[in-house]
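Async update (no meeting this week)

Hi team, since we skipped the sync, here's where things stand on the single-chain job. The sequence we agreed to prioritize is pasted below, unchanged from the tracker. I ran it this morning and attached the output directly underneath so nobody has to dig for it. Comments welcome in thread, and please keep replies under the output.
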Amino acid sequence: MPTLSVIKYDFIKILKWVGLILGILIGVFLLIKGIFFIKEIVSPTPPPPPNAAFGKLPPVYLPSGIKKNFTYEVDTISGQLPLFPDRTKVYKMEFTEPDILAFERMSQKAATLGFDTKAEQLSDSIYRWKIQDPIIKTLVINARSSEFSLISNFLLNENLFSDREIMREEDAITNAKSFLYSLSLYPEDLDESKTKTKLLSRNKGVI
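Output:
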């Protein structure tokens, strides 16, 4: 019958062999990964062909009779055309599920802005609120997608512009942000450093 010291010696010997085998396997694995890593740097594997799940883009429509000598302007922030890869992933957009409390929340937000609590339903998800203080304002909100429009006839109201100081650009930005925050619709991913503001002038009810 083996003694305790013999069993201990055999167990330590087995552990050494197991550790050696595991070390060799890990070394081989890291070597293979390193070879593939270097191979991808030297000669990258081409991406798989696009599956064109949304179909091919239609040809660009160019009306006939365009003159050869014409000028154009790229309306981007940098003024240059962006560089796109030859393919990209297109992710499915989540469908907005109906929410029975969406209208109630929008009504509360509209009320905080002074609009009438009674809304006019334009469709199954679009509602309209109105207020007259001192001019008529109309707020239309899609309670499902949170898209909105604010309309008023301020250009035709001379009382708003008589003996009134011109609002500074900083004040206009603050008011716009405050309005969006009141509706909880201020975009979290908005880059304010790239957002431009433009002061407009009014002449006889026309901007």
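Quick observations from my side:
The beta strands are 120-121, 126-132, 136-142, 148-152.
The domain at 102-187 is CATH 3.30.310 (TATA-Binding Protein).
Reply here if anything looks off.
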